[in-house]
UniProtKB/TrEMBL annotation:
Keywords (A to Z) from UniProt: Metal-binding, Transferase, Ubl conjugation pathway, Zinc, Zinc-finger
UniProt-listed Enzyme Commission number(s): 2.3.2.27
Protein name, as recorded: RING-type E3 ubiquitin transferase
Record-linked InterPro entries: 7-in-absentia-prot_TRAF-dom, E3_ubiquitin-ligase_SINA, Sina-like_RING, TRAF-like, Znf_RING, Znf_RING/FYVE/PHD, Znf_SIAH
Originating organism: Lupinus angustifolius (Narrow-leaved blue lupine)
Keyword 4Fe-4S carried by entry: no
Secreted recorded as keyword: no
Residues annotated as transmembrane: none
Top-level taxonomic group: Eukaryota
Pathway terms, separated by semicolons: Protein modification; protein ubiquitination
Similarity comment: Belongs to the SINA (Seven in absentia) family.
Length: 310
């Protein structure tokens, strides 16, 4: 689906794995940049290495094939592997089957410090070059980093840039797209509205201010109470998402609930937004009241508006 699909996939997986390290390290990055320039490790620091380079190969974990970050481990015979894989292989060296114990490979960690690497999204158009330990932080925010498909309900493995995903949502998920910054949307569930155990999802796409937004409507159990929730996600980075605001309104019979928020980036999984309860939450009893009639059918009209902040 996305151009160069298989190449991205590995990239994204290794991102997830290395993110633990990244969060801890990112904060000290500015500082470590300075110390790194001072450190003398016998290698030419200005040597930008490519993936064809032998030093680069040394830093690839032989088990998961991702780049290794401290603590890098080694067995008594000198075989290296990353800290995630050390746990995975139950402390047995996958190469020579020795007990791994707790030996760190400080030399390799130092070598890594002395390297400059191109952004992993180089093939997608990013030409930035970073010290080894600053690379992860950049790649998290790199403008060329592909997005995962924001469709909820089934885990979709498609990823790519925003135009690719917009076409994908329309063509492969049959998502409706609306233009403009105000909307009015009806959610009707004919089946027994008392059954929300099987969570349902609905997604609508909005094209406002030349950008794309996903309106989610979900039914799920909050603690033990069934609820409906609506929220907006922005198809772009978090820094850009913050430049927008939105409001949602639902009601009937002289009652109304309103919600005002900031759209979340699609970098945040829809389930995370739901877990944070960062949206309009409607208790089932109220939802049925809003639906009128015999309260056997869920019929909600949600109106909303998207605006630009500042
Ligand atoms: Zn590994
Ligand atoms: Zn070994
Ligand atoms: Zn980049
Ligand atoms: Zn998809």
């Amino acid at each position: 689906m996305a151009p160069g699909g298989s190449a991205f996939k590995e990239v994204i997986v290794s991102h997830l794995i290395s993110s633990d390290y990244e969060t801890g390290k990112a904060k000290s990055e500015a500082k470590s940049n300075i110390t790194m320039t001072k450190s003398v490790v016998g290698l030419n620091r200005k040597n930008v290495i490519s993936s064809k380079n032998g030093v680069h190969d040394l830093l690839v974990c032989p088990v998961c094939k991702n780049l290794m970050y401290p603590p890098i481990h080694q067995c008594p015979n000198g075989h290296t592997l990353c800290s995630n894989c050390k746990i995975e292989v139950h402390n047995i060296c996958p190469t020579c089957h020795h007990d791994l114990r707790n030996i760190r490979c400080l030399a390799l960690e130092k070598v890594a410090e002395s390297l400059d690497l191109p952004c992993r999204y180089q093939t997608l158009g990013c030409h930035a070059i970073f010290p080894y330990y600053s690379k992860l932080k950049h790649e998290q925010n790199c403008g060329f980093r592909p997005y995962n498909c924001p469709y909820a309900g089934s885990e979709c493995s498609v990823f790519g840039d925003i135009p690719t995903l917009v076409s994908h949502l329309k063509d492969d998920h049959n998502v409706d797209m609306h233009d403009g910054c105000t909307f009015s949307h009806r959610y009707i569930k004919e089946a027994n509205p008392f059954e929300v155990e099987n969570a349902t999802w609905m997604l609508t796409l909005f094209n406002s201010f030349g950008r794309h937004f996903c309106l989610h409507f979900e039914a799920f159990q909050l603690d033990t109470a069934p609820v409906y929730m609506a929220f907006l996600r922005f198809m772009g980075n978090e820094s850009e998402a913050k430049k927008f605001g939105y409001s949602l309104e639902v009601g009937a019979n002289g009652r109304k609930l309103t919600w005002q928020g900031i759209p979340r980036s699609i970098r945040d999984h829809h389930r995370k937004v739901r877990d944070n309860q960062d949206g309009l939450i409607i208790q089932r009893k109220l939802a049925l009241y809003f639906s009128g009639g015999d309260r056997k059918e869920l019929k909600l009209r949600i109106t909303g508006r998207i605006w630009k902040e500042g």
